[in-house]
Specification:
This protein has 930 residues and is mainly β. 13% of the residues lie in helices and 49% in strands.
Length: 930
């Protein structure tokens, strides 16, 4: 039942509408105007306004709970918002003054539309500069604005119409309702727009907003949660990139892979590699901590590096990338934190969207290149329960380079079939408590008969990898990535005066690689083979993790300007690498991979991580924010007795037994930051942050040296890595221009890097002092509603001191990515049709080559992509063209790995991994929402 003020307000609105209709009817049926009648109607309107103002005030007070807090229009009905925002776009004083003057017809000589970031402006210019008085009321999908005592005197006639002038608006029509009044009708796409009068000395300026505009404005207010507390970006003292759902949908028109998405949108992240793993994709030259809804999915075992292949992009609401180490989170985050936030339920009702499409190569129209994808999401709210369910399936065909040749890479994303299922259910328990359960299952399987040919050995120098087909290949276990995650979160907003959050989770991961052929082959009058596995084999990693996170955000002051975030994290994981051996004779005779034996290439080992943290934040003034914190990190490693194994003459050979044991490194890490905002639009920040973790233990365990006989005494290579980074930055956020600029320097006394072994060609762990520094910048400009322009830049360089003598050498290009520059231009070509050209340039990096660290320099390349979106029906037709000009290039990671020494013959380059990038590839999708 309506409250009394609501009923009164509704009655007044009804009377005003009838008053308007009666006035129009009277004037249409009488040849002469009646100033007396008009004056009476205006006076009744004035009296209504006198009544409605306290009514609206009381209604606002009821809606806001009766306290003294500022009232928000969010969540109110459209009629309430319209009445409150415009209050009929007029004050009582204006009406009274207007009524006491002699009635005069005002001529409107020009009508203009002006698009701003806050919405559309309709400007009615008058000949004498007199004020026009509008009456604004919604009816269905129309917003009707009556302007009395006015007439149209336009150069083009007595009518103005504009179709699709802005997003969410179908038409604007300005007509002569009768001899002495003008009517403006604004038709919304799904509902009536809202309007308010913008103060002006002479013209009538109506600010029009739609539901789409309101959603855009709300998106600008999204809070950052990757700092473990919800806070505005302008208060965070470090570089952060936020990739919203809209940008995710736009970029996945080109590629659905999250690694590709980050590589093209985050300045500090290395370029895309088009692989199943993140090989070479570092963040500021170091490892990034990958989170899914705050849950760490990294493991200590770093061979496959497939954390970003743990969830499909369709299940992601947004991604927050925090550059640089931080004491707020635990290990593996010395390069920064990538928090993948899953899809969220709406605030009301039920939303349903689906996306389906096809993709194929245009550089070679082979049927094998054809792929498809389907995604569906349903999300809703029912009383105190909200839910999200997402399903996606993607089939990726074969990849072909710019020359039309099939791309052969054992880690390629080509020829894969994957599906993902996300489920989330949340229950609000009263006003302050919430319980949420979520699960995500990702499964990607690769099925191909093509491998990189060994024939490239025959040609001197580094050669492009060529594909060789193994006809009738028969095998039981294909390469695959499987990740299962389940979690429960309890939150309470009223514990010790603060917000409590408790989370428990479990993750199960399987990563199986492509089979490898290490058998001896003749080359140059000799036989070459893989030194440690001269046979047919296939490895897989099995990892299980569980953990818990408990945190409490406690305010110390009533206005919450000073507060402490504190808590505890615990993670326990088990890793093992198993290797299958295959029957060589059966493979030669029938192309069949039949498993004949299995060995533990990396023995089982356990890593437990305990972290205690406290983070203080003080909003000293409206402009100055200070923050700082400390984290205690304790890592325990446990390994049972084991015997290393290898293969010799098709036989498993055991090495020297290793005595198991425990390691228990620990340390404190700190961080601090300062933000000073000169205005609401411009601010500077500076920070110092530290990170702490232990490198991949498996590398030391699976191929130990002869001196390694005890875990307690032989794990020097796994000593913890502590990184300290300094950063200073500058950012601005104006109505139509946004920019960031940051510089950083980080250092580690005992850093880690992967360096090629001269004898085996394999990457081995090297520990030495290390320093990395760089610059990052972004710029986005919206000159008009129909145009979007932007660019980003990232450059970094790194060095280490392998002899610890003060003489630094450049880090290899597997650690430090080349500089990169991105740019885009987007235009609304026609109403409902937007086109975007985006450019991605990767520069040269030859410093490591010049100083003898690498055998080949990294060469630059340029890619141009086209994204076109057309509104059709209830959805959008999306067309993406990757590598528009079919450029033949080699990704930076492929250039690096293809230039390493070959494990089969260390004096030769690794041709089989020197794979070209994709040629022109087209994706056609249709995205519908209900």
């Amino acid at each position: 039942m309506k409250s009394e003020p609501s009923a009164i307000a509704s009655l007044i609105f009804s009377l005003l509408r009838r008053n308007r209709d009666y006035l129009n009817s009277y004037k249409m049926n009488n040849n002469r105007s009646s100033s007396k009648l008009i004056g009476c109607c205006k006076l009744s309107f004035f009296l209504a306004m006198v009544v409605i103002n306290p009514v609206v005030a009381e209604e606002l007070n009821n809606l806001s709970g009766g306290d003294d807090k500022p009232y928000s229009l969010k969540g109110q009905s459209r009629l309430q918002r319209q009445a409150i925002k415009s209050q009929f776009s007029i004050s009582a004083k204006d009406l009274l003054v207007q009524n006491t003057e002699d009635e005069e017809i005002i001529e409107v000589t020009r009508i203009r539309l002006n698009q701003t970031d806050s919405g559309l402006q309709i400007i009615l210019e008058t000949a004498t500069g007199q004020q026009l008085v509008p009456l604004i009321l919604p009816e269905g999908n129309n917003l009707i604005i009556d302007i009395l005592d006015a007439t149209l005197a336009l150069p083009t006639g007595n009518e103005f119409r504009e179709t699709n002038p802005a997003e969410g608006i179908v038409e604007i029509a300005v007509t002569q309702a009768d001899a002495t009044s003008i009517q403006v009708i604004i038709t919304g796409e799904n509902n009536a727009p809202t309007a308010e009068v913008i103060p002006s000395e002479r013209d009538l300026i109506l600010g029009v907003t739609t539901e789409a505009t309101a959603q855009t404005e709300a998106a600008e207010e999204i809070q950052i949660i990757s700092t473990r507390r919800e806070e505005p970006l302008s208060e965070v003292p470090r570089s952060i990139t936020v990739i919203e759902r809209e940008e995710i949908e736009r970029q996945t028109i080109i590629s659905n892979d999250i690694g590709d998405l980050l590589g093209t949108t985050v300045p500090g992240f290395a370029p895309p590699n088009q692989n199943r793993n993140t090989r070479g994709q570092t963040l500021r030259g170091r490892e990034a901590l990958i989170l899914i809804d705050g849950i760490p999915v990294n493991s200590n075992f770093r061979v496959n590096r497939q954390e970003l292949r743990s969830i499909d992009s369709s299940a992601v609401e947004r991604i927050e990338v925090t550059n640089g180490p931080t004491a707020i989170f635990g290990g593996q985050g010395t390069g920064g934190v990538i928090n993948i936030i899953t899809r969220q339920a709406p605030t009301e009702g039920v939303d349903f969207d689906q996306r389906a499409g096809l993709n194929t190569s245009f550089s070679n129209l082979d049927a094998d290149s054809l792929g498809n994808n389907f995604q569906a999401t349903v999300a809703g709210v029912d009383n105190n329960v909200d839910y999200v369910f997402n399903f996606s399936q993607e089939s990726i065909g074969s990849f072909f380079d710019g020359e039309g040749d099939r791309i052969a890479d054992e880690a390629s994303l080509s020829d894969t079939l994957s599906f993902n299922v996300l489920g989330k259910v949340g229950v609000n328990i009263g006003e302050n408590q919430r319980l949420q359960f979520s699960t995500n299952y990702f499964n990607s399987r690769r099925d191909t008969n093509f491998i990189a040919s060994f024939d490239t050995f025959a040609t001197p120098g580094r050669q492009k990898a060529e594909a060789e087909e193994l006809e009738d290949l028969d095998r039981e276990d294909n390469p695959k990535d499987v990740n299962f995650l389940v979690s429960a979160v309890y939150s309470n907003e009223n514990v010790l005066g603060g917000d409590l959050q408790f989370q428990i989770y479990y993750i199960d991961t399987l990563a199986r690689g492509e089979f490898a052929d290490g058998r001896p082959i003749p080359f140059g009058g000799r036989e070459v083979s893989l030194e440690f596995f001269p046979t047919l084999f296939q490895s897989r990693l099995e990892n299980q993790r569980w953990g818990t996170r408990l945190q409490l955000d406690t305010p110390f002051t009533q206005d919450e300007s000073l507060g402490l975030l504190w808590g505890v994290d615990y993670t326990s994981e088990r890793n093992i690498q198993l290797t299958d051996l295959f029957d060589e004779d059966l493979f030669v005779q029938e192309q069949q991979l039949r498993k004949i034996d299995e060995l533990e290439f990396t023995p089982p080992y356990f890593v437990n991580n305990l972290g205690l943290f406290a983070q203080l934040k003080w909003e000293a003034t409206d402009s100055l924010i200070l923050s700082g914190g400390v984290r205690y990190e304790n890592i325990s490693v446990s390994i049972d007795d084991y015997t290393p194994t290898a293969v010799r003459n098709n036989q498993i050979v055991e090495g020297t037994p290793v005595e198991g044991g425990d390691q228990n490194p620990d340390d404190f890490v700190f961080n601090g930051g300062i933000v000073y905002n000169f205005t609401n639009n411009v601010g500077v920040f500076a920070s110092i942050g530290q990170g702490f973790f232990i490198p991949d233990i498996g590398r030391a365990l699976r191929r130990p040296g002869e001196e390694f006989v005890s875990v307690d005494d032989g794990l020097e290579l796994t000593e913890p890595i502590k990184v300290t980074e300094y950063e200073i930055g500058f950012r601005g956020n104006f109505d139509n221009v946004q920019f960031t600029l940051a510089g950083f320097f980080n250092y580690s006394d005992n850093g880690s890097s992967l360096t090629p072994d001269e004898e085996t060609g394999l990457l081995e762990l090297e520990r030495s002092p290390q320093r990395i520094y760089g610059v990052e910048a972004t710029l986005d400009w919206q000159p008009r509603e129909s145009w979007l322009i932007g660019t980003s830049f990232g450059w970094s360089e790194g060095e280490n001191d392998p002899d610890d003598d003060g003489d630094y050498f450049p880090l290899n290009s597997g650690e430090i990515a080349p500089w990169r520059l991105t740019a885009y231009v987007e235009n609304q070509t026609l109403p409902g049709w937007r086109n975007r050209l985006q450019f991605f340039y990767v520069g040269d990096r030859d410093r490591a080559f010049d100083e003898g660290v690498e055998d080949f320099p990294i060469e630059s390349y340029l890619l141009v992509d086209l994204i076109s979106r057309i509104s059709i029906g209830r959805g959008e037709l999306q067309i993406g063209v990757e590598n528009l000009f079919n450029n033949q290039y080699f990704p930076a990671s492929s250039q690096f790995v293809g230039g390493l020494s070959n494990p089969l013959a260390p004096d030769l380059p690794f041709d089989q991994n020197y794979s070209a990038g994709r040629g022109t590839t087209v994706r056609i999708l249709y995205n519908a929402r209900f």
